[in-house]
Every structure is written in C-alpha cells, then in structure tokens.
C-alpha cells in the first residue's frame, strides 16, 4: 500500500490555512506550520491544504 511523505519547506508565512483545512495533520507552532505526522497511508485533507497554501510550501511525495 502506498504511503505518502509530507514536508513543509522553508517559507511558511503562518497563515493558518493548512491547520484550518486539515487539523489532524497540521498544527501551527510559534507562527509556523508543523506536521503532526510525516508519513501518512492515505491522502485526505492534506491535498487540499497543499493546494490552498498561498506560498506552496507543502509537499506530498509518494514513498516506495
Ligand atoms: S497554508 Fe502554507 S503558509 Fe499557511 S500556515 Fe500552512 S504551510 Fe504555512
């Protein structure tokens, strides 16, 4: 089963959208988004959070 690796690159502006869209995975700490989980089995709200990030720093990669 595919797994997915999440990463937040440098440049997060702390807008909070990812946490609002997908609170099970993203949480703001000290004004920056951090990941509650880095490896996920299934993409749900993470895709929407990545698409909506205004600075496009959320990366989702499929792992082998
Ligand atoms: S949506 Fe993007 S810029 Fe906004 S808090 Fe999340 S990672 Fe940072």
In short:
20% of the residues lie in helices and 34% in strands. The protein is of the alpha+beta class and 64 residues long. The model has no long low-confidence stretch (mean pLDDT 96).
The main sheet comes to:
3 strands, antiparallel
Q: How many independent structural domains?
A: 1
CATH class, named Alpha Beta
Report strand order across the widest sheet.
Answer: 4-1-5
Percent in strands:
25-35%
Small-molecule components bound: iron/sulfur cluster
Shape: globular
N- to C-terminal separation? 9 Å
> So, CATH architecture?
2-Layer Sandwich
Average residue-wise pLDDT: 96
Q: From the alpha-carbon coordinates, what is the Rg to the nearest angstrom?
A: 11 Å
Helix-strand pattern: EHEEEHE
Helix content class? 10-25%
Total helical segments:
2
What does the model show?
Helix content is 20%, strand content 34%. The chain has two helices and five strands; from the N terminus they run βαβββαβ. The mean pLDDT is 96. The termini are close together. It is of the alpha+beta class. The site of iron/sulfur cluster has 14 residues, from helix 1.
